[in-house]
Amino acid sequence: MTERMTGAQSLIRSLEHAGADVVFGIPGGAILPAYDPLYDSASVRHILMRHEQGAGHAAEGYAYATGRPGVCMATSGPGATNLVTPLTDAHMDSVPMVAITGQVATPLIGTDGFQEADICGITMPITKHNYLVKNAEDIPRTIAEAFHIASSGRPGPVLVDIAKDALQAATEFAWPQRLDMPGYRPVTKPHGKQVREAARMIAEARRPVFYVGGGVLRSGAHQELRVLAELTGVPVTTTLMARGVFPDSHPQNLGMPGMHGTVAAVGSLQKADLIVALGARFDDRVTGRLDSFAPGAKIVHADIDPAEISKNRHADVPIVGDCREVIADLVVAVRNDQSAGRQGDYAAWWAQLDRLRDVYPTGYEDADDGTLSPQKVIQRLGEIVGPDAAYVAGVGQHQMWAAQFIGYEKPGTFINSGGLGTMGFSVPAALGAKVGDPSRTVWAVDGDGCFQMTNQELATAAIEGIPIKVAVVNNGNLGMVRQWQTLFYEGRYSNTDLQTAPRDAKVRVPDFPRLAEAYGCVGLRCERAEDVDATIEKAMAVDDAPVVVDFSVNHDAMVWPMVGPGISNDNIQYARDMAPDWDDED
């Protein structure tokens, strides 16, 4: 069945067929034809953002909350280029997203027409795929393919750039009944021989570790992971992108590895004789100096993207496949081995790791001057709000504290910008997550620097009735940059003082609670440790408007443990100038 309509109507109809129920965007000249039929759509809600970057991050937050591709829309030129940052962010963190941009009419393409930018060329390295659509009849097939590519295999962002005259042209709408994409065949089923070899190596290892990455979250494999972990008794580390896929309260969870990971997690990888990497990519923030990472370990590397296998660290057993299927097959193989009497003995290994956990727990000390500890704020936030909420972090010190001091028991409850480290991610991503899952409490845990990059989206949240809650961990500085200046630049604090919480003045620029109120939100401030609980509870009691809480915290607090840049994980410090005594572990 076909129906006569414009390309713009075909686009909206295609979004409806693809299952999109929300579009985050901003109209403009080249995309304007699409906004007219969007006005009449009964099933696609459009949320008017205040900046295209916010639209992209909101689409990411929606994708995290729902598992479905988030959709954002922008016009040509500057509208499209403002999506570059969220597209890159989604690409780095494997977030399914479809970005639709208007383009100048086909006769103007290549002429440097008004608001023309080659957005397909610009985004080629930062999208999973992109399209330039010049003919109206190609719109349904392209949208169908875009949603399929974004959500299958290794998820990622797909850009669809549509010329204005294609949106205005008349066409026959026909939704494709099947997709013919001969060059796109993601491998999801792992090779049985490789899985059996991995099971054999687990049984024979003396010091194995599961190194669990965001691929386990993306594939929905948290239940299979728990079965495998408990079946084998192998220690588990969960990366920044995998927080929550394995419960923090589980006795086998060693915590997060990497630059700001736990001593036990970092030490387990360094001392391991076998690392089973599941949906992880051996990035520099986990490995530290690569040539000194886990020197005695054999590597089993399972990933749905074959390009990741042996990219940074040679895999002794490479397994290409979807993590859910890989882990499920590995469970079967391990059970078969155990039935045949082949089972690992890790008692001595666990004794070593338990000592690391006992001697070097992640903790903090309150400031001598009585100022509010940021770690305490975040820890109490997690304890009061609980494990069912979603916590959406920006980037920097507050992100690391949110990863360290909130207990994550369920997948999808920690959302953050991992690979790209995008300041400004938190508020719009929290907005998108709340839209995707309205019944869930959503807290944005942001820094005063990050918050000022996208806080205009508070207007969107207030007007659209999206009651997110924002905890601004306000130390008056670009906190992580200041930490590096303290440690590596002799305390020369060049351009990191934001004046949002000055030490010796009462003028705050800006005053966050007053700013929140100007945006139609509830604004609160907390400066004393004894007020933290009551302030969080007051914020939780508000359910009909966004809430912003300015937690004015100590200026000099640092994130520990830490592996310094470009050095070995063996040199992790659990506090300044204090390192574990590895000799006691050997």
Automatic annotation (TrEMBL):
Belongs to the TPP enzyme family. It catalyses: 2 pyruvate + H(+) = (2S)-2-acetolactate + CO2. Coiled coil: none annotated. It holds the Pfam family TPP_enzyme_C. It comes from Streptomonospora halophila. Its cofactor is Mg(2+); thiamine diphosphate. Keywords: Amino-acid biosynthesis, Branched-chain amino acid biosynthesis, Magnesium, Metal-binding, Thiamine pyrophosphate, Transferase. It comes from the Bacteria. It is an enzyme of class 2 (transferase). Binds 1 Mg(2+) ion per subunit. Pathway: Amino-acid biosynthesis; L-valine biosynthesis; L-valine from pyruvate: step 1/4; Amino-acid biosynthesis; L-isoleucine biosynthesis; L-isoleucine from 2-oxobutanoate: step 1/4. Residues 5-120 form the Thiamine pyrophosphate enzyme N-terminal TPP-binding domain. This is Acetolactate synthase. Residues 394-551 form the Thiamine pyrophosphate enzyme TPP-binding domain. Its EC number is 2.2.1.6.
